[in-house]
Design goal:
Elements (H helix, E strand, L loop, with lengths): L1 E9 L11 H13 L5 E4 L1 H4 L2 H7 L5 E5 L4 H7 L13 H4 L6 H19 L5 E3 L5 H11 L3 E4 L9 E4 L6 E2 L21 E3 L40 H11 L9 E5 L7 H20 L3 E4 L1 H11 L6 E5 L8 E7 L3 E8 L2 E9 L18 E4 L1 E5 L11 E4 L3 E9 L2 E8 L2 E7 L3 E6 L6 E4 L4 H4 L2 E3 L2 E6 L2 E9 L1 E3 L2 E3 L4 E8 L3
Parallel strand pairs: 1-2, 1-9, 1-10, 2-3, 3-4, 4-5, 5-8, 6-15
Antiparallel strand pairs: 7-8, 11-12, 12-13, 13-14, 14-16, 14-17, 17-22, 18-19, 19-20, 20-21, 21-28, 22-27, 23-24, 24-25, 25-28, 26-27
Helix pairs in contact: 1-9, 4-6, 6-7, 8-9
């Protein structure tokens, strides 16, 4: 099943340029009514105190929730000095919860919730943002009964927000110590599933802006379902058709396929109109065919919580390349790691492998972000974007020539069969391990990188690769197979790796 949340969030102020902030909301409401769909509108505090927005939404049949960015009137209501350049300032240290102490975050949330209840008579079920810290999300869940959230896609530096190495799609229960990582067990999780916004291109978003010679870009560009991107994105008819027909009906997902449709009002209606109308057209057709379920964010979270007591394994498959350049991408996420297996013509490699651990805490759990650019991350074992450069494309490479790649679901595990000129390789992704079996006698998986502090400091043992990131010791333990230099080599046709915290 494919689940679609139509989420539009509403700002009350746009200091960068003159734009009609009301027209997008009116048009989005009209689109929903025309197609008999239900949506979620998330209101920033400055929109919540604007009577024109309130009158449009107060009696609507759609879900109304909160968009948690910090604005001057919210600070004033909470009795906290405003440090922004404008009444709404997108810089992370003033515009997001991480720019405030844990006590201040709670005071801001109290003021936000009090205003929402005074208008709508209840507390919101859903609160979203590009990123909400663990302290704030936990507080909203325990004190106000918030049961659903959404955050931004994986990105490096875009708009000053680095969110890197997280659960790549669908939804996850965040850790109480790192809101950008799934909790490892029920005791450590915030009981609010976070759904991933924007609909990333699973083939090309990851490497957006990458130069093999110069390395990774400081700020990635965007290849997503957002309708304001008219070339290679949600405003491009050809790309949108591919995304709906291939990614949202992909071969395997293990749980459900998911995308958020919608756009914030600050882009203005002319920029989003055509792309959003096209997307509603596709949604209507797919809903009639029984392919998709369109529902509110709160309803999706309620169903998720009823079915999954802990973050499940999930997959995103893109086996048809819209650029027709013979690339395939398979993302797998569990509560312990995420990985991306990537094929380009005859070459196959792990483009990404990130480990999740409750002991690796977010930077802002107790501290305040004092920088316009915030950073959330996890533990890199393979980082094909940030570690490339010097004419080297980083990754964990198979020494084979691939002819075919097949993906299948085996209950909660993902199985990939690779047919190569040299023989066959079977990969199985499970909750905490990656298993490789093969009939190829000299198969090797070799770590390649162009630049990386972590990999330069890697320590190789016969059965382990030890790494260090931000002072945290972790790595890969081999339960079968051995390390030979910077390569993993199967024993008796078997290689099994487990991502673990390392202790001396």
């Amino acid at each position: 099943m494919t689940i679609i949340n139509i989420i539009n969030f509403i700002r009350g102020i746009e200091p960068r340029e003159a734009v009609d902030l009301y027209e997008p909301v009116r048009q989005q409401l009209q689109l929903l009514d025309e197609h008999n769909m239900t949506g979620t509108f998330l209101m920033q505090y400055d929109a919540m105190i604007d009577e024109q927005f309130v009158s449009m939404l107060q009696s609507t049949r759609h879900e109304i929730g909160c968009w948690l960015e910090i604005v001057e009137p919210l600070c004033k209501a909470a009795g906290i000095p405003w440090r922004g350049r404008f009444p709404w300032d997108w810089h992370a240290h003033v515009g997001f919860s991480v720019g405030y102490s844990p006590d201040e975050r709670k005071r801001l949330i109290d003021a936000l919730m009090a205003k929402f209840k005074s208008i709508f008579g209840i507390y919101p079920h859903s609160v979203g943002s590009w990123m909400i810290d663990a302290v704030s999300l936990d507080y909203m869940a325990s004190e106000y009964g918030v049961r659903a959230s959404c955050n931004c896609k994986d990105q490096w530096g875009t708009d000053g927000y680095t969110l890197w190495g997280g659960y790549y799609g669908q939804a996850y229960y965040p850790s109480r110590t790192n809101a950008y990582a799934p909790a490892q067990d029920v005791a450590h999780q915030i009981p609010v599933p976070i759904f991933k916004m924007l609909g990333s291109d699973p083939i090309y978003q990851y490497d957006a802006g990458l130069s093999l010679k110069e390395g990774a870009t400081r700020w990635q560009n965007v290849i997503t379902l957002e309708p304001v991107y008219h070339q290679n994105g949600g405003g491009d008819k050809a790309w949108t058709k591919w995304f709906f027909e291939q990614v949202l009906t992909g071969t395997c997902c293990l749980t459900f396929r998911y995308a958020q449709v919608g756009q914030e009002n600050s882009f203005g209606w002319p920029a989003m109109a055509e792309g959003l109308q096209d997307q509603f057209h596709y949604l209507s057709q797919m809903r009639e065919q029984g392919i998709v379920r369109v529902e509110t964010l709160a309803d999706s979270a309620t169903a998720f919580s009823a079915q999954y007591p802990i973050t499940p394994n999930a997959a995103i498959t893109a086996l048809n390349d819209w650029k027709r350049e013979d690339r395939q991408s398979v993302w797998f996420c569990s509560k312990r790691y995420r990985t991306n297996l990537f094929r380009e013509k005859a070459q196959l490699w792990f483009r990404d492998l990130m480990m999740f651990d409750d002991a690796y805490t977010e930077r802002y759990l107790d501290a305040v972000c004092d920088n316009p650019e915030m950073v959330y991350d996890n533990l890199p074992i393979v980082d094909g974007n940030r570690w490339s450069g010097n004419d080297v494309r980083a990754g964990l490479y198979f020494n084979i020539h691939v002819e075919d790649l097949q993906v299948a679901e085996k209950e909660t595990e993902l199985e990939i069969t690779v047919t190569a000129r040299e023989g066959q390789v079977m990969l199985r992704f499970s909750d905490d391990t990656i298993a490789v079996t093969t009939d190829i006698a000299d198969l090797r998986l070799e770590f390649v990188w162009g630049q990386s502090v972590e990999m330069d400091a890697a320590k190789v043992e016969t059965k382990a690769l030890r790494l260090m990131h931000e002072g945290f010791a972790y790595g890969v333990q081999l339960t079968s197979g051995v390390m030979m230099g910077m390569a993993m080599v199967p024993e008796a046709g078997s290689l099994m790796m487990k991502m673990v915290r390392m202790v001396d």
